[in-house]
Amino acid sequence: MTVRVLIADDQELVRTGLRMILDAQPDIEVVGEAADGGEAVAMARSLRPDVCLFDIRMPVADGIAATRELAGPGVADPMPVVVITTFDLDEYVYAALRAGARGFLLKNAGAVLLREAVHAAARGDALIDPNVTVRLIEAFAGTAPEPRAAPTTPLTDREQEVAAAVARGLGNVEIGRELHISLSTVKTHIASIMAKIGARNRVELAIWATDARR
């Protein structure tokens, strides 16, 4: 199935580069480009892309505001948003993830990782650039104003292992290989963990798991 993507970045050169990378993939189609956050929200609501790829810093409405409009708490039919930025520890990144973004990539992540992030978001998963995952989570976990709620039901030992692996930035396949369990079992554990802790996506799970170790 072809994944339809909307790109939003205020730099035309960046938009062109991202379009070239994504359009070169046989299973991804760029359906629109926006130069600011306001235009991005309007186009997303009109085009209903499978994934939105938003820069953090944009005029009119930044990537955080645009993400919140399309994927934030209370949105009835949230859209998958992947945030891209030049700054791996930019303070805005954490706010974007809290606003509902399903992934975070550096703009120099490369074609393979970009494709993986788009497909992960499209299937309801999330991907954070593995080069910055640990630094990102360590920098921002524990800084949210709201307290971390305890799980409605305690995590099993295996679920704790899976949660810790997610916090380290491992993908499902890598987790399965490390813990010697099947891919379907990994997915089942992750779904169970998210339900227990009230996480909306894999990013929130990773942040929760890091906070839980503090």
Automatic annotation (TrEMBL):
Residue intervals of the Response regulatory domain: 4-122
Superkingdom: Bacteria
SUPFAM superfamilies: C-terminal effector domain of the bipartite response regulators, CheY-like
PROSITE patterns documented for this protein: HTH_LUXR_1, HTH_LUXR_2, RESPONSE_REGULATORY
Transmembrane segments: none
Residues of the HTH luxR-type domain: 148-213
GO-annotated biological processes: phosphorelay signal transduction system; regulation of DNA-templated transcription
Keywords, ordered alphabetically: DNA-binding, Phosphoprotein, Transcription, Transcription regulation
Modified residues (4-aspartylphosphate): D55
InterPro entries per the UniProt record, alphabetical: CheY-like_superfamily, NreC/VraR/RcsB-like_REC, Sig_transdc_resp-reg_C-effctor, Sig_transdc_resp-reg_receiver, Tscrpt_reg_LuxR_C, WalR-like
Pfam families per the UniProt record, alphabetical: GerE (PF00196), Response_reg (PF00072)
Gene3D superfamilies named in the record: 3.40.50.2300
Molecular functions per Gene Ontology: DNA binding
PANTHER family to which the protein is assigned, alphabetical: TRANSCRIPTIONAL REGULATORY PROTEIN NARL-RELATED, TWO-COMPONENT RESPONSE REGULATOR
Protein name: LuxR family transcriptional regulator
